[in-house]
Amino acid sequence: MAKESSWSMSRMAGVWKRKVVQHDFYDAAGQVAAVLLMNSPSNGRWEYEEYLRLLRVRRFNKQQPESSVGRCYFLCADGAFSRLQAYIEEERKHRPELRPFSHVPFCDAVIGDMDSCKNPPHNYGTHGSVDGAGFSLSAPTEGYATVDDIPTSVLDQIHERYTFTVAEFTRMSATMEGASLAEWDKLDAKRRDELLSLPFWLYVRCQSTTDFMKALILLNRLREKHKEDIVPIPPHVLRTESGKRLLETGGAIIPNAGSIGLDLDPERERELCAEACKEEAVLLPTYVCMGALGGRFDHEMASISVMLSASTRAHVVLINSNNTIFACQFNGWTQLVRNARCEGVTCGLINYGTMKECETSGLQWNIAVGRGKPSESQDLVLGFGKLISACNSIRREVVTIDLRRQLFSTRSQGGSNTKQAPANERDDEVDEDHNPPTIFSIERCDGDETKVGHSC
Question: How many CB atoms lie within 10 A of CB 310?
Fold first, then answer.
């Protein structure tokens, strides 16, 4: 099996870091640097409409030129492209706003081992196929061994065609404004051989990486190759003094929050938030992924594993109609400011292994374990096969999660105690003295706060 080498997926060593999460992909999506559609049998109208919404908002938005917020790539994995294409072809019959997508790509590249793509689009199987703008669309017939083997010239073509696509969409939308479906069909017939609507086809044979990981490695290569397109957009809460004060205090208790829970100590919660805010927030690109949840269980678990492994490079968010899921900052702080219009209060803090140290604020059932200080939750053992924080509830405007390993650990070896290095001087790999990878999940809602709440 071939192995990828360009993106080390292990966690990077370094000092404690703080990640501030305030999702904007529900509306403006200025923080979003990539949108991925995975191939899942459960994909349906919701996934396709969310993909198209982000495409319109993030790429074809006349009110917000993309140059002001940085470039956002759109990728489809394997068979997801053909299913999305079929959906658009059917919908465009009665939705004029979708008709330009017969002539410009609605994704930049299709990537994967193509095991679920039975009938690749015409001309993709031949090396050197070109579209009407002169861009080569195809991989060699035998594909590439790994994502690293994709030539930099192909990365450049993806980048250049991206710019061409935006200009072509704008021109065509203006030229064909108000045109009937019959008029669009005539245009289709004239341009059928130009292949302008087809994305790049990247067949990667590697079987030691999932299609999801292949897509993330490709994104990393594109961003490294064209750093001029990177425009870091901090969460809104970090752009104002009032927002920074909100993070420092934890904010107010949200309406209808219950009074029964664990470690609901206002002073301790404020202290935790204030301590977190002493660390500078890291700015990571946000990658939004549909199609990773639902369908086969092994597919879901593999997607979560890839999300965790990529967490030092990007804020990867897995979404469906019910969930928003992301990785917490490893050996550091995570602060979440809930989007009250689109995110509910029911949540979960799920650690993939036994938690050594953890402290939270802003939850109905806070956690304070392994810190050597009295708490109502100090005797809880959090871990798989034990207890995980499911069906929890957000109680304050800000949720703060502290996963640092503060205490020195000792081991008895041959009758002597060996003092271990502090967590902020750790090696790359996770060992038994570190907290396990941890994710946070939050329910999606329809914008009516009166309808959100516990479902378990």
Answer: 22
